[in-house]
Write a sequence for this structure.
């Protein structure tokens, strides 16, 4: 089975532009997580979904960030407008309570650079 | 207060030697799980090992074992017979079962294996 798929793998954009990151979770997983990783702040949870419903978005930095999960196999994280401080690696992860440890499986990440 | 603390930003170990990576945690939830992930230079996050708060025995997975000291709230990762491919960032994470299905990560430890 394919793992978590993220696209694009790299994104370079200019300040003020809209950025959309995409994620396809592992089939059958009902939890989806978005993380941001920076040198300064480490790995931070932004938001997570259960059965396509956002459960906790307290980590979303501000209104410029939004996330959706229109169906069980697709989620987006949008930044509008983007700022240089948004430069980071964004990970998507998925999990299911059916796994023995309910561990999260991570995608390869999207490296975002905002100029 | 930090929920997960990894006090060793970087460590060296000689190939074939064992190494212990420290992790302490803070929670008042009686039910929780502790995870270790490996992040090689390629960037992906790889699940290594899990320890549940009610587990009576220390978890082991191949060359990885977890030295779980509940009273001290520590969950140190032990890697035996280090290999060059073990060079990576290692993250400790906790899931508090009464706080939703999300992970809180420590700041990580960079392990470098010397030939």
């Amino acid at each position: 089975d394919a793992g978590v798929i993220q696209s694009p793998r790299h994104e370079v954009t200019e300040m003020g532009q809209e950025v959309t990151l995409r994620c396809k979770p592992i089939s059958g997983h009902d939890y989806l997580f978005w993380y941001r990783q920076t040198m300064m702040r480490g790995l931070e949870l932004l938001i997570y979904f259960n059965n396509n419903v956002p459960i906790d978005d307290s980590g979303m930095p501000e209104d410029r960030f939004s996330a959706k999960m229109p169906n069980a196999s697709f989620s987006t994280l949008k930044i509008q407008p983007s700022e240089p401080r948004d430069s980071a690696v964004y990970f998507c992860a998925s999990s299911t309570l059916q796994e023995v440890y309910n561990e999260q499986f991570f995608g390869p990440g999207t490296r975002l650079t905002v100029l | 207060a930090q929920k997960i603390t990894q006090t060793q930003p970087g460590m060296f170990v000689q190939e074939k030697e064992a190494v212990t990576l420290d992790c302490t945690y803070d929670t008042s939830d009686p039910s929780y799980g502790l995870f270790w992930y490996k992040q090689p230079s390629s960037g992906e996050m790889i699940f290594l090992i899990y320890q549940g708060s009610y587990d009576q025995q220390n978890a082991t997975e191949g060359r990885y074992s977890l030295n779980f000291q509940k009273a001290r709230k520590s969950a140190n990762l032990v890697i035996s017979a280090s290999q060059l491919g073990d060079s990576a960032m290692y993250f400790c994470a906790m899931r508090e079962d009464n706080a939703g299905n999300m992970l809180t990560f420590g700041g990580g430890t960079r392990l470098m294996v010397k030939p």
Q: What stands out?
A: Chain B has a mean pLDDT of 95. The first strand of chain B starts at residue 4 and ends at 5. Chain B touches chain A through 20 residues (CB under 8 Å). Chain B has no helices and twelve strands.
